[in-house]
């Protein structure tokens, strides 16, 4: 059986980190599937889905990591292609982290570690309304 849900998430962009786990757990509690796989995806080229410990210290560390890996001061050819919009950095960061994660679940409980959460990261330079697709596959 396959069941999908779509969530609309309003973001601020600029590396905003949003915990999706509470909404996903609500969906999981109400689906007709007890055991299987969950796929969470964001159909966007400037956003990512990751897992991490969701707390202020880790969030600050992750924001620093984004800057260390792909500096916002770097010039991208993509920026010129869009007339100077300047979101090449957002595309590069999203490429590194990817658009989706897959997590098993058993007895309607996600197989995440104690502190691990499912997170949306919006790298775009402007606020966006993101669609997040949550798909459960199983029995």
Notes on the structure:
It is a single chain. The protein contains four helices and eight strands, in the order E-E-H-E-E-H-H-H-E-E-E-E. The protein has 139 residues and is an alpha+beta fold. The protein has a single domain, classed as Sandwich (Jelly Rolls). A five-stranded antiparallel sheet has the order 1-8-3-5-6, with helices on one face. A hairpin with a 2-residue loop joins strand 5 and strand 6. The mean pLDDT is 92.
By CATH reckoning, the class would read: Mainly Beta
Distance between the termini: 6 Å
Q: Roughly what is the average pLDDT, rounded to an integer? A: 92
Which overall shape is indicated by the principal axes computed on the Cα atoms? Answer: elongated
Could you list the spans in which at least 5 consecutive residues all have pLDDT below 50?
Answer: none
Strand arrangement in the largest pleated sheet? 1-8-3-5-6
User: How many DSSP helices?
Assistant: 4
Q: Can you tell me the CATH topology?
A: Jelly Rolls
Binned strand content: 35-45%
Domain count: the total is: 1
The appropriate CATH architecture is Sandwich
Which structural class matches the secondary elements?
A: alpha+beta
Helix content class? 25-40%
**Secondary structure tally: strands:** 8
Largest sheet: 5 strands, antiparallel
- The named CATH superfamily: YjbQ-like
Reading the helices and strands in chain order gives: EEHEEHHHEEEE
């Amino acid at each position: 059986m396959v069941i999908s849900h779509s969530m609309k998430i309003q973001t601020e962009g600029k590396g905003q980190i949003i915990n999706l786990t509470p909404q996903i757990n609500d969906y999981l509690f109400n689906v007709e599937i007890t055991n299987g796989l969950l796929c969470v995806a964001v159909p966007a080229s400037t956003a990512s889905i990751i897992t991490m410990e969701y707390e202020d210290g880790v969030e600050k560390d992750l924001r620093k990591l984004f800057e260390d890996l792909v500096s916002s001061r770097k010039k991208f050819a993509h920026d010129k292609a869009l007339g100077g919009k300047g979101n090449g950095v957002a595309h590069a960061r999203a490429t590194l982290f990817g658009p989706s994660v897959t997590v098993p679940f058993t007895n309607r409980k996600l197989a995440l570690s104690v502190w691990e959460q499912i997170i949306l990261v919006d790298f775009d330079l402007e606020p966006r309304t993101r669609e997040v697709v949550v798909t459960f596959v199983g029995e």
